[in-house]
Hints:
The complex is a heterodimer of chains A (997) and B (109).
Chain A (H helix, E strand, L loop, with lengths): L2 E2 L13 E5 L2 E5 L5 H7 L4 E4 L6 E3 L11 E4 L6 E5 L9 E5 L25 H5 L5 H14 L14 E13 L3 H12 L4 E4 L9 H4 L2 E2 L2 E2 H13 L4 E4 L2 E7 L3 E7 L12 E13 L3 E3 L12 E3 H11 L1 E2 L4 E5 L5 H9 L7 E3 L7 H8 L4 E3 L1 E7 L6 E6 L8 E4 L2 E5 L2 E3 L2 H4 L5 E4 L4 E4 L14 E3 L9 H16 L9 E2 L18 H4 L3 E3 L4 E2 H9 L5 H8 L12 H12 L3 H4 L13 H5 L16 H6 L3 E5 L2 E6 L7 H14 L1 E5 L4 E6 L3 H8 L12 E7 L5 E11 L2 E6 L4 H14 L7 E4 L4 E7 L3 H8 L14 E6 L2 E6 L8 E7 L3 H12 L4 E3 L2 H10 L34 H4 L10 E8 L10 E7 L5 E13 L4 E9 L8 E4 L6 E6 L9 H4 L1
Parallel strand pairs in A: 2-8, 9-10, 9-16, 10-13, 16-30, 18-26, 20-21, 20-26, 21-22, 36-46
Antiparallel strand pairs in A: 1-19, 2-3, 4-5, 6-7, 6-8, 11-12, 11-31, 14-15, 15-16, 17-27, 23-24, 24-25, 28-29, 32-33, 34-35, 36-42, 37-40, 37-41, 38-39, 39-40, 42-45, 43-44, 44-45, 47-50, 47-52, 48-49, 49-50, 51-52
Helix pairs in contact in A: 4-6, 4-11, 7-8, 8-9, 13-15, 19-24, 22-23
Chain B lengths: L2 E3 L6 E3 L4 E5 L11 H8 L8 E7 L7 E7 L5 E6 L7 H10 L10
Antiparallel strand pairs in B: 1-2, 3-4, 4-5, 5-6
Amino acid sequence: MSTRLAQGGRLIDRSRQVSFTFDGKTFRGHPGDTLASALLAGGQVVMGRSFKYHRPRGAVAYGVEEPNALVNLGEEGRFEPDTRATTQEIFDGLVAESQNRWPSLDWDIGAVNSLFARFLPAGFYYKMFIHPRAAWKHLFEPFIRRSAGLGRAPRARDADRYEHFYAHVDVVIAGGGVAGLAAALAAGRSGKRVLLVEQSGHWGGRAVVDGARIDGKEAADWVADAVAALDAMPNVTLRTRAMAAGVYDHGYVLVHERLTDHLADKSGLRQRLWRVRAGRIINAAGALERPLSFAGNDVPGVMLASAMRDYLVNHAISPGDRTVIVTNNDDAYRTALALHEAGLIVPAVLDARPVADGELPERARAAGIRVETGRAVVRVKGRSHVTGVEVGLHVGEGSVLEEIACDAVAMSGGWSPVVHLWSHCGGKLNWDEAQAHFRPDPERPPLGADGTGFVRCVGASNGHLRTGDGIADAVAGAAWATGADAGKAPAGEDADEGALMPVWLMPQGAGVKLRAKMWLDYQNDVKVSDVQLAAREGYESVEHTKRYTTLGMATDQGKLSNINGLAVLSGALNAAIPQVGTTTFRPPYVPYTLGAIAGSAARETFMPLRKTQMDSWHVEQGAEFEPVGLWRRPYSYPRLGETVKDSVAREILNTRKNVGILDASTLGKIIVKGPDAGRFVDMMYTNMMSNLAVGRCRYGLMCNEQGFLVDDGVVARLSEDTWLCHTTSGGADNVHAQMEEWLQTEWWDWQVYTANVTEQWGQIGVVGPNARKVLEKLGGMDVSKETLPFMHWAEGELAGFPVRIFRISFSGELSYEIAVPAGQARGLWDAILAAGAEFGMQPYGTEALHVMRAEKGFIMIGDETDGTVIPQDLGLNWAISKKKDDFIGKRGQQREHMVDPLRWKLVGLETEDGSVLPEGAYAVAPGDNANGQRNVQGRVTSTYHSPTLGRGIAMGLVERGPDRMGEMLEFGAGADPVRAKIVDPVFYDKAGEKQDG
Amino acid sequence: MLILTCPNCGIAAEETELSPGGEAHLHRHGPGSSDGEFEEYLFLKENPRGVHFERWRHSHGCGKWFHAARDTATLQVFGTYSAQTTEPPQHIRDAITAARPGWRWRDFS
């Protein structure tokens, strides 16, 4: 059992207590504790269950690399699964529960998987669930999905707020250990803008735990002085609980900062994602200790030697009375010495090396600690807690020479530099034979915009594991990053260390039975035997082996397991480790929340919302809105007791009988002006626009270079050199961008200017037989048929408002579209409503607009078109000029497939029984195609119930449709197809007498 | 996340401010062109690993188009220049030659 010692603990504040619950049981810790240290203080060693075999697991690490101690944290809107107990600081009222166990952490029914481990080898799912194929969908997949995943997904909406924060700096330094601090001091003195981030809540990294000395001071004192000096520099920004998550092209760095995760008071901003643009990046992220692969290395109580030292020094945690140390290097002796100094028993240090005569082993011997060289742990005894170890020869096969009773095991397999930030953007690695790890190759850095390296690793992340070397390397890194002389590096001192001996299997001749109990990836239960099996089955690539065995695919992303795993793979393949290579390092370094990624782009600020000047009026009327591009437009205005279907029908009938008013402000409005404007609009539109007379309007079509129809609208000629192009509501920005693209990149010598004035004008449609009466009542300009006929426009005043009135119609009714400066739009709207009351005026929304245009056979971009439809398909040949040599799309429309007589063309469709055809329904044809699917000969593009006609109407694209008037088609291949007749697409006022009136 | 300097307004713009426009120095083929020429113009684009000329628009900035010469593999930027030209200017070619001697891209070298 672990417990809290009466003395020590440099991070905890013993004068105060913090209370929290784990699986419903109350625990107490101190400020400065992590969830893991507080649980260990309370004797709770088992903190979770592994993924596949549900083996009981305790914390094996101290930081972000922890694979086992994952908990569901918090409740309701603050619930988060897979939270690492090793990095979560405790606060009053914290609620945590263990994961992947049922019914309880101590008694987990899934642990039965462990008994069948032999039958659940690497690739089990691939092998087992492949046959019979049919069983996958209904049997295997639902089962696997139920048993997959560790934590629960949150159910409630996230209660917290997040933000993005933009920063521009000269140097980002990732890691607040002594290397990072030394680099920051040197870079800070150069005057450059420096951002130093540390992922934990504390500065100083390992040096303050391991008792190094810097410039003659205790490391902790030097760190305190360094932080104070940095705080005083105005050009340096310091952040703790801020993790450099990823390095991207051209010096882009993401930093994830946790602001309230460690606090009981959650009222503030929870997390911040820093989007940093950095000139140079210094990675001072340190190194991670590797486990050793011996049987039972996952039993709770087995811990990394450095982690055990961290819990002891930082939190006064005793891992148990008796701890056996097993190592292949000198560093682990620090743990032996620290435990011994704390008054705990170290029954033995088992050192795999034949000789251990460095400074630290000698100090251990001098302290009376038993040091056994050439020895290995053959097996750890105990199930839910370590009870002892079996000791054997490291060069042997596992014969047990001795059993040592103990409560904990500290293991060290050497250190791996944290090279993630170097590798994210393409930095390459070399294998360091002496230290048995990958370290950055300075000749192959990630390259920036200027073709030179923009990331440098310093200190332990560059393979400099000794304090003095690391600090000197960091200061040299600062000189590189700032281009300034960094001055003399602080002198670091620590114990001399002898050479490490690589150990990838312990004992090295271990048989299959032992290898099947040696864990590589703890969380996903990948063992040495699984990787060896993958190699035997032909998996030679480390990337394939990873996916086959799931090695390194857990939430720690292989921080602990990858090097050990690929060493085992290289052994099985009989290839050198650098030849096998590493898997790809991908951001983020540590997973972070979707909330931080979203930032403030959530709920109502998810995206911009464009509102017209009349928006508040629509809200007052209780309008149902629909999105149109970024705009919101009233879909309909249901009255009390009306369904939306009812109100749409009412709006249509009233507009056709009396008069309707439409907020058409979202309509795109683009000014094209200049000496070459006529020539330009002739290129942009399929029809001739240069010969449009001033004061007249013309409907026009815009295509892309492939010939496909992309937008339509009415063009008005405002003056000799000015055209006003109306576009669809959703298309204005695109059309304007297209115009600019052609003008800037193809016809840059043409004298044309464009301006998107969509938001400068409000636009109001007054539509219906009484429309003219309403305008005449408002007064101010002559709107008679003679002065202002159909497809003309005029400028003047209406009820004192300066307006342009366009006689255009999208409904087939007598219609005036009135443009008014945006600031006065609401005033005119109100004036029209007041004037229109006596003529039965009612507002109508977009759905009424859509139905009325369909009744009239007008096409809608996005309904009748889908990016594969040319104007000729829609019977719009009349709007395609034959006189012009060129327009955008002309050449595209001459392509073979575009002139195929079998193309699907626009027709009207009338169901036999008057019903409404289903949207997007296909007209079937006899026979099947090559894929065994029913042949088709057309599809529905628009379909509505027409209240005007009292029946369903539809438009569709049908093979040779216009040549087949009167033919019946069948829609839907089911038992009950709908039969519809091919008819003319104009269902209402074919002669156009109403709109001309 | 590239940074390209817009030659129109001088801003060193991040990729989120920019819109990509594909290959630069296209020759438009309109009516009268052969099927082969039209296909070449519309569909057959260069996609090199190395030196490339691209069109970009400073869409969330000054709104103007410009050209960029860069290495698609290393992301080194050799320079940006006006969109109102049919071929890369000499100083851009020189900058590429300095970094990638013997480079070739379509008819340019």
